[in-house]
Every structure is written in C-alpha cells, then in structure tokens.
Amino acid sequence: MKSQRIRFFLRRFFRRRELEDDLQEELNSHLAMDVRERMERGEQPLQAQAAARRQFGNLGLVKDVARDNWGFGWLEQAMQDVRYALRTLRQAPLFTVTLVLTLALGLGSTTAIFSVVDAILLRPLPFSQPERLAMIWEIPPGSKKPNVVALNNFVAWKQRSRSFESMAAFFQLPMNLLGDGETEQVPGLAVTSEFFQVLGTPPLLGRVFRPAEYFRDEPKEVILTYGTWQRLFGGRMDVIGKRISINVSHHEIIGVMPPGFGLENYRADLYVPLAINFEEGRNYSVVGRLRENVTATAARADIAAIAIQTARENQNLNAGWSAMVISLLEQTVGNFRLILLVFFASVLLLLLIACANVANLLLMRGIRRSREISVRFALGAGTARIVRQLLVESVVLSGIGGILGIGFAWLALRLVIANVPPSASIPRLHEAALNPTIVCFGIVLSLATGILFGLAPAVQASKPDLVHALHESSRSVTSGRKMRRALVVVEIALSFILAAAAGLMIRSFVRLADVNPGFHAEHVLTARMLLLPVQKQEWRADAVDQMLQGIRALPGVIAAGSIGILPMEG
Q1: pTM of the entire structure?
Q2: CB 103: neighbour CB atoms within 10 A?
Q3: Residue 48: domain span
Q4: Does position 288 have pLDDT exceeding 90, yes or no?
Q5: How far apart are CA 92 and CA 393, in angstroms?
Q6: Which of 15, 215, 300, 423 is most open to solvent, judged by the fewest CB atoms within 10 Å of its CB?
C-alpha cells in the first residue's frame, strides 16, 4: 500500500499530463454512462446530454476537487496567481520596469556588500578548527595596544601554558630571491617548526620543518607557497629537493603548501626556519592553538598568570609588561568589522528606501484597481484569496528584481575587487564571490522584500469596503485622489528620513575608513631595499647614503630620506 502511494506521488509530479488525460477520460465515461441510461429510459439524445451535464454540475469545479485530492490544488492556484501577475504586469510596462530596476539596484547592492561581509566576517578561516586559533601579544607598561613578543616569554608560555595545545613564533622579513640571473624581493616568514602544526595544514607536496630545539643557525631549507610554486616552477611535481638562492644562500625546497594557505595579515611567498636568538628584544609574533573545550576567557587568564610570573623572574625584561590573547579571526578582521557593519547597515537603509517607494507605488496602483478588485469580491473571491494574489504580484516583482540584482551584484563585486588598491589592506577581500550561500541569500532577500513591500498594499487593496466602489465611483475617485496625495507626502517624508539615515551611515563609514596618517602623503613615493645582515654596518650605512644622494640629484625630487619601518606599518 505504501509503495502504491509513493508511485502515485511521483506520478503526480512527473506524469501530470497523463493524470489530466485520465481524469478527463473518466469524466467523459461517467457522462456517457448517464446519457445512455437516460436514452434507455426514452429521452432524446440532445435532451439526455443536456440533462446529464446539468446533473453532473460544473466540470471545472469537479476537476478542481479532484486536483485537491491529488494534493495539487495549492500548486494550481499558485500557478494561476503567477500567470495572472505576469499578465497584469505586462499591461503596465513602465510601472513594471520602474519597480524592477529600483528593486534590482537595492537588492544587488545589498547582495554585493553581504558577499564581502560573508568573506571577511562570517566565513571561517582556511585552517583546521580555526575557532581554536589565537594570537598572543605582550602589552607594554601604561598601554593597551598589543606588542610583539620576546622569545624568552614565548618559551615560557609554550612550556607552562595549560590552555594551549601548541604555539609557534614567527616574524615577517623581506627576502632577496635570485632567479634567472635577476634578483627580486619577496615577502617571507621565518617560523618555528610548530608553525604548520599549529595551523593544522599539511603540505601539498613534501614535508614541513622537522621538530627541533632552538638553534642560532637555521637549516637551509625553504617551503614554497602554492602561488610561488606555480610562478617559479610552473607547478612541476619534481620541485622537491631543488635549490634556490635566498639572501645569497642556497636553500633546499622541502615542501609546497596548498592553495589559500597563509596568515592574512602576514603575506609570505616563502617560509624558512626561524633562527632563534634569545639576546634579541621583542621582535616576534606568536600564534597558538587552544586545547579542546578551552574557552578564550580561560586562555587569557592562563597567559596573564604566566606573564605575572615572568615579570617577577626577569624584571629587567618584563617589569610592567603583561600579555593578551586575541582570536585569530578577530586579529585578521581588526577594525574592518565595524566598518563593514556600518556600510552594510547603510545599504540596508537604501534597500528600505526602495521598498518604501515600491510599496507606495503599489498602494496608489491598488487604488486605481479598486473597481477590478470589487468585481472579484462580487464574484465570490475571499479576502485571503485577494491578499494572496496581490502578494504573489509583489513576490513576482521582487523575484525579477532579485534575478537582475544578482547580475548587478556580480558586476559590482568585480568592480570593487578590481579597484580597491592594495594599500587598503582589506583582509580576505579576494575571497568575496557569488557562491551558493550568497545566491541563496539573494533569493531569500528577494522573497522577504516582496512580502515586506507587498503586504501593506495587499491588505489595503483587499478591504471589504472597496466593494462599494462599484456604486460610488465618483466618491471613490475623489477619495483616491486624496489618498494618492497623502501617500506622496508619506513617501517623500519616509524617503527623506531613510536617505538621511543612510547618508549618516555612509558618512560614518567614510570617516572610519579614512585614517589620517598625520602627514601629507601626496607626491610621496617609497622604495624598499634589503641589505643583508652579513654585510658590515659601515658598508651598509655608506650604501644608503650614496643611494639617497643619487635620488636627491634626480629632476623633480625635493627631498629623500631613509627609515627602518614606514609610517602606518609599525
């Protein structure tokens, strides 16, 4: 019995035409039987057919009852509403195009910005269990800002912490890479051997650095990022074991990391082992992986307690210093969380403006359609049926606008990513795309928008007193004019309020994004030069002086200087 129900259920969806033909054949069979019985009783053929049809009733109603028994009644009515909505909208092309374009711009802008919010704020980092990753910093006396770490304290945290499963230290440094007779400067990271274990990412090829104690001289090994492997070696699989020249030293390639691997705020093309020097000051960053079921609060308390211990043990190095723990996601996003949320709120306000305008236009159109709706009431249509049909019109409008909006969002997103300068340093912006999650968001937003701007006009247009419009046309016209004027006033007022709010939001976004560097950055150029540590200090100073003299002698150069860390980078 159950299998028969399943077969019939599948047949309803995939063999609908056959079901309709069977229904029509069955109805014709019943009519023919009734006609034969009447003719056997002596009635004439035409009279028998007419009497049989009268007794049988409305064939269309009988079919509707049968479809309801199939479970297709709601679908049939929905399709009728959609067809009627499309036909009605085609009759008013200017009205339809205006509303669709308004909605497309609002929905497209919101979808595009949400794709950026999703990529930066909502999507997990590309590591194993990224919620367990955190950065650990030291805090100078009298300050709340994070500071890089001394190696002695890193070792103390690593050995004493009960909250962290593993830790790794690293620092960013430029590297001179020699290839094809030319030298290029590339970003790199010097990391301890636990770095890849902490992030939980195995190499695509080869291996990572072997666990080792801390040595002053690092092994001459290097791990390539996926992009560097493709750029230098064209993705050749026999790259493991080859040597490349980094800072005039030959390094053996021991591994290649998978695509997308890397810390967002620490761009690197190469990874080399970290040469530990405990005599150096605070130069290192620390990333750690929390143990299972350890909260961020517990980790902060744990590291803070160890910082108090190290301050007592080494007052020359740590007097007044403390430590802090920040989740890796929060560290990656930084101040962009507030900026993006403000911008997203601004776009939502603009979408509300579009919804308000569309709702008011639908309200005015509902007044003009009062006679049509009154006729439908007179023919027996219920209030719920009218409201549903008008809501379907709104959802059809928002659906068309949503489809165009997704296309607009795709174009806007490409333009944004292509035109944002690298100096903006927006994390994970390149990951923003119209993936299935974003498309589903756009679809849901379109449906919600259709209901939002369509509900009030649908309820207003379906009020029972509209039936009297058939008998009170003159008064209806007068009241309609008054209503239209009132709606125009309400529309202007609401649009003004929402536009002002959106403007304030956008202004706040601009002010948050526009950081004053404290100096005039116009017509200022920068260049980087890497001088190797093996070179004598006197030679390096002379080389910098000669370079600056040559730059100052160039036409159009007013001044030139050198600095270890550029402003806004340290």
Answers
A1: 0.70
A2: 27
A3: 2-71
A4: yes
A5: 13
A6: 423
